[in-house]
Amino acid sequence: DMHVFVLMVYLGYGDDRTLLSEDMYFHRVDFCNKVASEVVKRYSTHGIEVEDRVVAYCVPKYLNQVPKNVY
After folding, report:
1. Contact residues for 1 (Cβ-Cβ < 8 A; gap 6+)
2. pLDDT, tens digit, for every residue of 11-59?
3. 14/59 Cα distance (integer angstroms)
4. Distance CA 34, CA 64 (A)
5. Which of 14, 27, 39, 44 has a CA positioned 20 to 30 A from the CA of residue 53?
6. Neighbour tally for 39: CB within 10 Å
7. Does the pTM of the predicted model rise above 0.90?
8. Which whole-number Å values give the CA distances from 39 to 42, 50, 59, 67, in the listed order?
9. Are 65 and 4 within 8 A, CB to CB?
10. Is 40 left (phi over 0), alpha (psi -120 to 50) or beta?
11. Would you state the pLDDT for residue 18?
12. CA atoms within 13 A on the CB side of 39
C-alpha cells in the first residue's frame, strides 16, 4: 500500500475533452509536475486548435497494490 501522484492527461477542451492517460505514477509531486509541464508543450507556427490542446496535472492517490513502474 502506498500514496503516489498520478499524472492525468486530457486532450481537447470543455465537454469534448478526452482522458488520455491516468496510469503514470510518481513518488514525488515535483517530478510529476515536471513531466506534466513537458507533456502539454505544443509547437506550431499556425497556432494550436482547440481540439489539440492538452491539459495535464498531478493528483494524489492511495493504491492498495503497488504498480510495477512508479517513477
Report:
1. 62, 63, 64, 66
2. 998 898 999 999 999 999 999 999 999 999 988 778 888 888 999 999 9
3. 19
4. 25
5. 27
6. 16
7. no
8. 8, 16, 16, 22
9. no
10. alpha
11. 95
12. 19
Residue keyed to cell 515535483: 30
Residue type, 42: R
Q: Give kind and range of the element (H or E) at residue 33.
A: helix 29-39
Q: Decide: 58 and 6 in contact? Cβ < 8 Å.
A: yes
Q: Is the separation of the CB atoms in 52 and 2 below 8 Å? A: no
**56: which 3 cell numbers?**
495535464
Distances (CA, A) of 60 to 7, 12, 14, 43, 63: 9, 23, 23, 29, 10
| Amino acid type, 54 | V
